[in-house]
Amino acid sequence: MQPKRIGILIVAYNASSTLAEVLNRIPPEFRTRVSDVLVCDDHSDDATYLVGLGYRQLVPDLPLTVIRHDRNLGYGGNQKAGYRWAIEHDLDIVVLVHGDGQYAPELLPEMVAPLERDECDAVFGSRMIDRGAARRGGMPLYKYVGNRILTTVQNAMVGTDLSEWHSGYRAYSVAALRDIPFERNSDGFDFDSEIIVQLHEASKRIREIPVPTYYGDEICHVDGLAYARDVLVDTTRYRLHRMGLGSGELAFASEAYELKVDPRSSHGRILAWLRDRPPSRVLDLGCSHGVLSEQLREIGHHVTGVDLVEHDGVRARVDRFVAADLSRGIPAEVGGDYDVVVAADVLEHVRHPERLLAEAQRCLRSGGSVVASVPNFAHWYPRMRVTMGRFDYDRRGILDRGHMRFFTRRSFERIVAEQGLTVHRRAPVGMPLEIVDRGRDRDDHASPRTAVDALQRIDAMTLAVRPTLFAYQFVYELRPTIGPSVELRDADATRPVVEPLTAVRA
């Protein structure tokens, strides 16, 4: 096997008194295995750059390159420059070392060993693995406590199980760096937390090894409170992006559309309604990956799926798949004579939902129905955003950036009536609280069920009191109108067959 090409990135700022010693501490037997060493002087106020140049003249056995930025890029910006260099030089492994000697160069062989064996995509040196080692090494108590608290919170928010998020001693597979958008990260000290989030999002493997604790001068450049604020903001944004809220760029590897598995969700409601029907012919409009279709098949229905894109594996989840742009209507090849047409989270994505409803009605056999779910723009969340003057699109949810139309209960039911359909059943659906756990990979980091259960109870109560304000979505079963403006009624002919609002609590 061809040996890995190893590079060392030394980030340095005002490190003239320590840089030469850091370079001296690179183990002699390891030097022969190193392809490149880059010292990045981040526009220091001292002679860091000159020390590096002098070392290169005096110690020619180290393949050393020394550069000085023409302006201060910041701790994160300095790393970005180094990782670009590693990619451009086609290295296999790059190790981050601090020029102030804060992390032990003697451990470089141990840092790269798991990467050389292809056991992981990144190796982090942790001062917290060995119990008590950090304090014995001189870490102040308040920094130790802060480190542990931040690491615990960040693990819970992101879904990782690291012993330390805040070590700057790291080795990366350069291939892994190519796969993540590290250029988007902060130029500050929170860069290290952001790259962990990106590695996790990209499903990269992280290994930790114990390293000794030492504090050099560089730590003085960190404002502890500002740093804590920044890393918590970063991990909170990631959690929100995984939940579908906000711009979503941190959740770059996550599916934009996911099945809502909770029985209280719109998909759960649709499955419950169709579970009560005998085996039927179902047309699933906007079937996406076919995850809802697959569950409909499991309860006995024959499903034809329609979507613009043929996603991987969709044909295995449906009985028949038709690729079509629903904004242009339902294609003739779909045919008709369906018992149920499902339009789950699709009508808001087309410019003319009324046309799609009319065409869906024409696909039905006698006695058939349309089952649709639509977001509620009158929900308190978009109301709050608009009131605060902070309207913008999210990655998922009511303000999904792909939504072409917004509905309230009244506006949607007006469209329904105009298309000759009647509401046979209607169910308000609360907040999809299952998204709180979206993206967590370990059971021991799942949200406390007591907290989620409490939120669900509160959500159900508010939903029952005022569904137009607290319904996240409305789910409908629609049937063609019998005669002019006649609404279907249940057996006792005293009330419409509309599901009670409190049924969401079932």
Quickly describe the structure.
35% of the residues lie in helices and 18% in strands. The chain contains 18 helices and 14 strands. α7 (141-158) packs parallel to α10 (224-243).
Secondary structure elements and pairings:
Layout: E1 6-12, H1 19-24, H2 28-31, E2 34-41, H3 48-58, E3 64-68, H4 74-88, E4 93-98, H5 108-116, E5 122-126, H6 133-136, H7 141-158, E6 170-173, H8 174-179, H9 191-201, E7 206-210, H10 224-243, H11 266-275, E8 281-285, H12 291-298, E9 302-307, H13 314-317, E10 320-323, E11 338-344, H14 353-362, E12 364-375, H15 380-387, H16 409-418, E13 421-429, H17 449-465, H18 467-470, E14 473-480
Parallel strand pairs: 1-2, 1-4, 2-3, 5-7, 8-9, 8-11, 9-10, 11-12
Antiparallel strand pairs: 4-6, 5-6, 12-14, 13-14
Structural class: alpha/beta
CATH architecture of the largest domain: Alpha-Beta Complex
What is the approximate shape? elongated
User: What is the share of helical residues?
Assistant: 25-40%
Mean pLDDT: 88
Instruction: Report the total helices.
Output: 18
Radius of gyration: 29 Å
Q: Write out the strand line-up for the largest beta sheet, numbering strands in chain order.
A: 3-2-1-4-6-5-7
CATH top level assignment of the largest domain = Alpha Beta
Instruction: Assign the CATH topology of the largest domain.
Output: Spore Coat Polysaccharide Biosynthesis Protein SpsA, Chain A
Alpha-carbon distance between the two ends: 60 Å
Q: Main beta sheet: strand number and arrangement?
A: 7 strands, mixed
Q: Give the CATH H-level superfamily of the largest domain.
A: Spore Coat Polysaccharide Biosynthesis Protein SpsA, Chain A
Strand content: 15-25%
DSSP, total strands? 14
Total discrete domains: 2
The residue ranges in which pLDDT falls below 50 over 5 or more consecutive positions are 441-448, 483-506
